[in-house]
Design a protein that fits this description.
The chain is mostly beta strands. It has one domain: Pnp Oxidase, Chain A (Roll), CATH 2.30.110. The chain has 1 helix and 10 strands; from the N terminus they run ββββββαββββ. The mean pLDDT is 83.
Length: 138
């Protein structure tokens, strides 16, 4: 259950399958969103308009890592495997600073924004897109 009394930075965690993500970038480095198209829509039938609730759900979890994170090698391995036809459909779980747990199942992974090699550390972004984003109910 989501905690409504305190926020703890120590509670942040992301797991990919059974692997724990390490070395997040500074700032807001974990995000999730429901990307289900038209989950609720109006359907017109012979007897008039009705509300239609889509059963399918899709979601996206995005993480930003320090360029020194050991997790980057693992994510690059997964991306290379996907490109060669070996699909790893993994679950991703996020625990936020208020003990909110968000789960995404059957995920593929992709690289995000452009990475640079300048004089300051450039974060590395990865996104996971999966079948169902499951958020807690308060």
């Amino acid at each position: 259950m989501r905690n409504v009394f305190y926020y703890s930075q120590a509670n942040h965690a992301v797991t990919i399958g059974n692997r724990v993500v390490e070395d997040f970038a500074e700032g807001d480095s974990i995000g999730w969103e429901d990307i289900t198209p038209e989950a609720v829509s109006v359907t017109e039938g012979l007897d008039g308009a009705r509300i239609s609730f889509g059963a399918g759900r899709a979601g996206k979890v995005t993480i930003k890592l320090k360029p020194t994170s050991p997790t980057i090698n693992y994510l690059n391995y997964l991306i290379d495997a996907q490109k060669s036809g070996i699909a790893f459909m993994l679950p991703v779980a996020v625990t936020s600073g208020v003990n909110e747990v968000v789960k995404l199942i059957n995920c593929g992974v992709q690289r995000g924004s452009v990475a640079t090699g300048g004089t300051t550390m450039s974060e590395r972004e990865f996104s996971f897109i999966g079948e169902a984003l499951v958020c807690p109910i308060d």
